[in-house]
Design brief:
mainly alpha
Length: 205
Amino acid sequence: MLKRISIAAALLAASAAPAFAHLDPAEHGSFMAGVSHPLFGADHILAMVAVGLWAALLAQGADHRIPNRRALWLVPAAFVGTIALGFTAALLAVPLPFVEPVILASVVVIGLLAAVALNVPTAIAMVMVGFFAFFHGHAHGGELGSAGALTFGIGFALSTAALHLAGIGLGLGLGSMFGDGIGRFATRIAGGATALGGLWLALGA
């Protein structure tokens, strides 16, 4: 059952992502505009999926010796919570330098964290992803436009959580399909692929 749920979550997000673009709040509503917003940018998609991949690896522990199941939901929750803080800061017109460069860097860094399966305490992992999440949230707030802030914010928070779930589902699904060792290695390869994707975006920016 866990295998089926994990695979379904990953496939659902992967199939939905290309279908969305920035939606007009006047036509589709602020909530749907918020839902679509993270799915419009490859940098947002890759970073948030990478968070899920790293969370899945952290939950397994280094070489499966010290599993930490709390990381599976605490690390993504830290990202979603801090992205809301960044969004609020943008609404309050709090300036934040280097937003786009840091967002691009987040794809590379978090992807590399998953690629090397860096095993750190959950609290430290939460701070690390939270730092980047603040910049992602600030970018969303800066592009609010005519959308209603509350419903837009709820929409992109749910979309962000879904992308995290896709990364977690991919990581757990690979483990279920190929076993712990090969599955973990495949998850790390997926993390490396997101890092390369972020590097490609940065070089093309």
